[in-house]
Design a protein that fits this description.
Layout: H1 5-25, H2 31-50, H3 61-81, H4 87-110, H5 122-142, H6 165-184
Helix pairs in contact: 1-2, 1-6, 2-3, 2-4, 2-6, 3-4, 5-6
């Protein structure tokens, strides 16, 4: 990704920490948490690796094709999983955005610096609008989260830290913001 190195490293750290938390959510006792956590962990780690500043590490040309293949497979999986829940449609859009960025970065790495237009492609604009809306909606949903029901004096019936919906929403919010930043810096 193009942009300042300091913001690139912050993006790498945010996405990597989000990916680690999503991996931990895969151990959850709640099926709905486990079903989404794997795809979100893949997105977090993929975004972290793509956000490494180009001044530090320039991936080989074949890496962009590998990213496109991995996230293409994730998009197919999300499409298949979308039969059971609408949240997987968001995973489909996210994986598709990663494929799009991989293809765009592969094309950008083959052009000499200074070539190319300054216009924003239509697909990039559509993805920016989608993720901006997603970030706003997720942020609004995060604000009024109620306390976990059933948390009496003994704490019986409370959800584990990996099952807390507000933490999952906060991770989704941070990945949505990260996706916006990555699309803006393309």
């Amino acid at each position: 990704m193009h942009g300042p190195a300091s913001s690139g490293w912050l993006l790498v750290a945010l996405c990597a920490v989000t990916g680690v938390y999503c991996l931990l959510r895969m151990r959850s006792g709640a099926e709905e948490q486990r079903s989404a956590a794997g795809g979100e962990a893949l997105m977090g780690f993929g975004m972290a690796s793509m956000a490494v500043p180009a001044a530090v590490f320039t991936p080989p040309s074949w890496a962009w094709a590998a990213y496109a293949a991995v996230f293409g497979a994730a998009a197919v999986h999300a499409l298949w999983a979308a039969r059971s829940g609408a949240h997987h449609l968001h995973h489909l859009v996210g994986a598709g955005a990663m494929v799009y960025m991989s293809v765009a970065m592969a094309g950008a790495s083959s052009k000499p610096h200074g070539q190319g237009g300054s216009e924003v492609p239509l697909l990039t604009g559509a993805l920016l609008l989608y993720f901006a809306g997603y970030v706003l909606l997720t942020g609004v949903r995060l604000v009024p989260v109620a306390a976990v029901a059933g948390g009496g004096a003994g704490g019986a019936g409370t959800a584990g830290w990996g099952d807390r919906p507000e933490l999952a929403r906060a991770c989704r919010l941070s990945m949505g913001i990260s996706m916006l930043v990555m699309l803006l810096t393309m």
